[in-house]
Amino acid sequence: MLGEHGSFILACYGVSALVLGTLALWTVLDGRLVRRQLGELEARGVRRRSAGTPEA
Fold first, then answer.
1. Residue 56 Cα to chain centre, angstroms
2. 28 and 35 Cβ atoms separated by less than 8 Å
3. Residue 1 DSSP code
4. How far, in Å, CA of 44 to CA of 28, rounded?
5. What is the SS3 assignment for 56?
6. Cα 17 to chain center, whole Å?
7. Rounded to an integer, what distance in angstroms lies between the CA atom of residue 35 and that of residue 46?
């Protein structure tokens, strides 16, 4: 069906799927880490500059 290069083609698809899956997992885990770090900073009273100054 895939000819004499079938194993090479399937290996390439497998490696590509593995790399894309790893990147997706890394992105999700890094996003959770950053959200946790931001929450800890905000709990300590550190605010983002984009949040503006509090109204007096």
1. 38
2. no
3. -
4. 25
5. coil
6. 16
7. 14
The Cα 42–Cα 37 span in angstroms is 9
DSSP state string for 30-55: HHHHHHHHHHHHHHTT---GGG-PPP
Per residue in 23-52, pLDDT (tens digit) is 999 999 999 999 999 999 999 988 877 776
**8-state DSSP, 2:** -
Whether the pLDDT of residue 56 is over 70: the answer is no
Residues in the chain: 56
- Region label for 52, one of left (φ > 0), alpha (ψ between -120 and 50) or beta (otherwise): left
The residue among 28, 7, 8 whose CA lies nearest residue 20 is: 28
Look-up: residue for tokens 């990147």? 23
